[in-house]
Automatic annotation (TrEMBL):
Coiled coil: none annotated. Residues 8-140 form the GAF domain. This is GAF domain-containing protein. InterPro entries: GAF (IPR003018), GAF-like_dom_sf (IPR029016). It comes from the Bacteria. The lineage of its organism: Bacteria, Bacillati, Actinomycetota, Actinomycetes, Mycobacteriales. SUPFAM superfamilies: GAF domain-like (SSF55781). It comes from Rhodococcoides kyotonense.
Length: 225
């Protein structure tokens, strides 16, 4: 199965690339929405979520540019991502981040995200291992995306056991709810959702879930504008 392949490759990166944590995510073309496929640790998942919530970080840049982002000492680049870098170093004790885009031909699918607590660059061998992992993950992600699309066509999404569980749609649904309720464009609704999630120290996925399932007042969001 594609899911087990994604997990296998991610876990292997820990030793072959010599990093402390790995996350794999797929993103929409504009990088406005992403879906975390696998994370080897809570910190890896937190780093992925932090970039999505703040809208900044090397993983997003790697996806947008379609080329690796190598930051052996993230504090050297703090000016580029002040909020992300501050949280990364201060809260998680992570000092190095490496991101490789997942590609299928010329199409961008997502990103392989890796971190180290120690400030240390990748060796040539580790860089090559990361490239191989990103290529393999790109193929595995395509299989998973096709599988997910098939469940949608058959109306059996609740039976799909891969990374794309039904609740993954919460962010898109929450943006739609905010857009309609607050009478703003989807882009503005997405920005407000991110801002509120950051202000409340919540993951954007968690806040979206609360909004969709009526556990959070939409009126509260107007104060984040």
């Amino acid at each position: 199965m594609a899911e087990s392949r994604i997990v296998e490759i991610s876990e292997r990166c820990l030793t072959e690339v010599g990093v402390d944590g790995v996350a794999v995510a797929v993103l929409t073309d504009d990088a406005a929405n992403r879906d975390l496929l696998h994370a080897t640790s809570d910190d890896a998942a937190r780093i992925d979520e932090l970039q999505f919530t703040t809208g900044e970080g090397p993983c997003l840049r790697a996806f947008v540019r379609g080329e690796p982002e190598l930051h052996a000492n993230i504090q050297d680049d703090a000016a580029s991502w002040p909020t992300f870098a501050s949280e990364l170093v201060g809260e998680l004790g992570v000092n190095a981040v490496f991101a490789f885009p997942l590609l299928d031909g010329g199409a961008k699918l997502g990103v392989l995200e890796m971190y180290r607590r120690e400030s240390r660059p990748l060796t040539a061998e580790q860089y090559a291992a990361a490239e191989r992992a990103a290529a393999a993950l790109g193929m595995a992600a395509v299989v998973e995306l096709v599988s997910y699309a098939s469940t949608l066509e058959k109306g059996t999404i609740e039976q799909h056991q891969g990374p794309f569980a039904p609740e993954r749609a919460d962010v898109n649904i929450a943006v739609g709810i905010l857009s309609a309720t607050l009478r703003v464009a989807p882009e503005e609704a997405s920005a407000r959702l991110r801002a509120r999630a950051f202000a409340e120290s919540k993951s954007i996925s968690s806040l979206a879930h609360d909004i969709v399932h009526n556990r959070s007042s939409i009126d509260d969001d107007s104060r984040s504008a």
